[in-house]
Amino acid sequence: MPTQLDNALEAIIGELTKDGQPFATVPFERDGITMPAFAGAPPSLAHYFAHFCNEHKDVPFLVDGDVRLTFGQSWAAATCVAESLVRDHGIANGDRVGIAARNSANWIIAYMGTIMAGGCATLLNGFWSGDELAYGIRLAECTLVLADEPRAARLEGTDHPARIVLFDHGNAPSEGLGKVWKAPAEGETPVAMAMLGQLGPDDLATILYTSGSTGQSKGAWSDHRGVVHGTMSYVSQSAMAKILLEGQGQELTDQPCALVAVPLFHVTGEVPLFLQSYAIARKLVLMPKWDAGEALRLMAEEKVTYFVGVPLMSYEIANHPDRANYDLSACKSFAAGGAPRPVEHVTRIKEAFPEGFPLLGYGLTETNGVGCGNFNENYLAKPGSTGRPSVPMVDLRILDDAGEELPQGEVGEICIRSTANFRGYWKNEEATKAAFTDDLFFRTGDLGYLDEDGYVFIVDRKKDIIIRGGENIACIEVEDAIYAHDDIAECSVFGIPDERFGEVPAAVFNVKEGREPLSPAALREFLLGRIAPFKVPLEEHIWIATESLPRLGTQKIDKRTVRAMFATQRVAA
User: Fold this and answer.
1) Where are the beta strands (DSSP E) in 43-102?
2) Phi, psi at residue 56, to the nearest 5°?
């Protein structure tokens, strides 16, 4: 039966989506399929930035070390970046501009400026190796890449078509982004203002990269309609939560504030965390890299009200030896996304922060982060569930391989349809076609079921990927890197459970007959020169097989059996 909280939330969102209300919907048709769209959605992200940065112009927005910017100052800075991108660098509507850097206030200004210039913000994975970054640039056909020094150094000597423009962090945007900085000339219409008359919902907005079972990353591209609706879906959920809490007598007088501890180039960092913040006037506190002790200090100092990260982050905060030294009472929500959260983490977080609640979201790069949410008491009651589909955007169904809907309780593929969905994989029509059903449901690759209350439970993945602390790793990509070693006869890569990261990659291999033995340490060193370090198994998770690996009738390596044979070992052979 639906809980009291379920009923309360349904009643609130029902009111918010009525005609004339902030989140009223209108029918939107795509390829003959009708789905709901927000009636008040801005035409583009550029319009969204212009509206809310003006509405909240004097409100604090970005905190990055000594750098502090209001919404108005951020928009003014992005206006100068947009001006330079068009006037100095020749960026035209739809051109892909890569961003390859760690999190910072200047990363955010670079993103804003790219969008406001009419460019497509192409979010390159900052953890990638130089060859991987170059592949992402080639795939998206970037003409320009804004990169910080470490990523630019990785790109040296690699094959790609883009011009690299350096920017740095920890300083004012006019300094850090000085090579893409131009004040609009007097008497001329600024580029950012001119673009408001040109950009529309169907224009190209973003490309994010997603690792799937087929190996190398695909570029998931979205139009402005998709990203705006993904953002507004989260705004509607925040409005619903605010009304609920105020109805329970809680006074929400402090400015919302979030710690940015997840990469902004991932959808969790981009949409629910960063982009949503404009509409709800939320302050963002940035940190260069994850450190639980530094997170505690910043959360107490800046009065952080909302924390989101991969599951291990909130768990590390809850268990940190210095936690009692910091006042984190302002933080009411400890959200997780990007990976499953172990059930024991849920109760531990609630014990550590009795005034707050653990939350869980489920969405994908291809859905612009939109999917399901499990909140507060409901999450404590059903900690194994990723929650109910987000109203009013999400139509979620459990489908069989033929695309037929399965009854409640039966396991099938979780499929999501919404206006927020991406439009396709860049320059990959085959993968795009395979990703959608005929009636435009996106096939997530996750297997799950709906319980009697409409809660989604994920039980497995169809796709052969490992989720390490929120980073997707395609097993076949790691296997390809191993096979690049001349001495390898066969190998298998799979995920094994890990208390900190959820799961980590592991590998089993054997060498060709007559070749010298190859140690796990030597193979790991070889792999570190070819793929990003987070994809490389630790030495103790690399095993040598003394016989041929077991195979299925199709002659594919039987990965389940291999995992069962080796994954219980904790010492390298």
Assistant:
1) 60-64, 67-70, 96-100
2) -110, 30
